[in-house]
Hints:
The protein is an all-alpha fold. Helices cover 74% and strands 3% of the residues. The protein is globular.
Amino acid sequence: MVFRNHTTVKEFIFMGFTDYPELQIPLFLLFLLIYVVTLVGNLGMIILIRIDSRLHTPMYFFLSNLSFLDVGYSTVIAPRMLITFVMDSKTIPFNQCAVQFFFFCIAVSSECYLLAAMAYDRFTAICSPLMYSVIMSRRLCILLVVIAYFCGFVNSVVHTSLIFSLSFCHSNVINHFFCDVPPILKLSCSDTFITHIIHFTFSTIVVSTTILIILVSYICILTAILQINSTEGRYKTFSTCASHLTAVTIFYGTVIFMYLRPSSNFAMEQDKVVSVFYTLVIPMLNPLIYSLRNKEVKDALKRATQRKFCSQ
């Protein structure tokens, strides 16, 4: 991936998460632990869904793709971030910075559309239970996932080509631990007004369209739940979408805070903390949210464990 611009900058230097030397090793160990838990949790979820036939349903098909995306964008960020804690060299070549941002943007954008598809799946399961297996056919599920990845790819191409075609002729020090929009735009010596407008517009389209789908789905779900007479029935029905609603709230809360603000409101030190949350912590939490609050996943894990011990 090559970007033609008039930059004199050949590489960027990350300032990293903190300037305090005494915190480098503790933070390295903390983020390494988070990353390992993220890999184990999400890859474990993918394997569990694949080997247990009872989880071969649309909801878990979407969940396995969510786990794949979580592994993807945490892997794009975490390894290089960990290197900056233990090595003196904190540089990243210009093209590698663009590639890192490109894949990160694909994963985050695709996750927005995938969460919307998962909301539609819950809407269909609760509001049209008798037609669920007909509506949510394998063909439709694959189509929804392909659309999510395609929209993420298009959004990433637009953002990456736009941002890395700017000129960078002053400082090359990124006040962050990865190549993200706000700190990179601050380094450009080009007029970034149009870039800010296009970035904000595309981000708004991605977030608003997917949130609209999610809101409409949950309004219909809530209406259907309120029509159930028994309290136990309401609770049981709501529990099937509680994990997804929790994941949506956490993910969109941080994404909106990060990317749908006026550029004048960006505070880099504050943004670093928020960035750690949605690039590392949320991918770690998602498999925990979907397993701890999901009886089917816990039962599948028990069956897998029992098969493991029985085979020995």
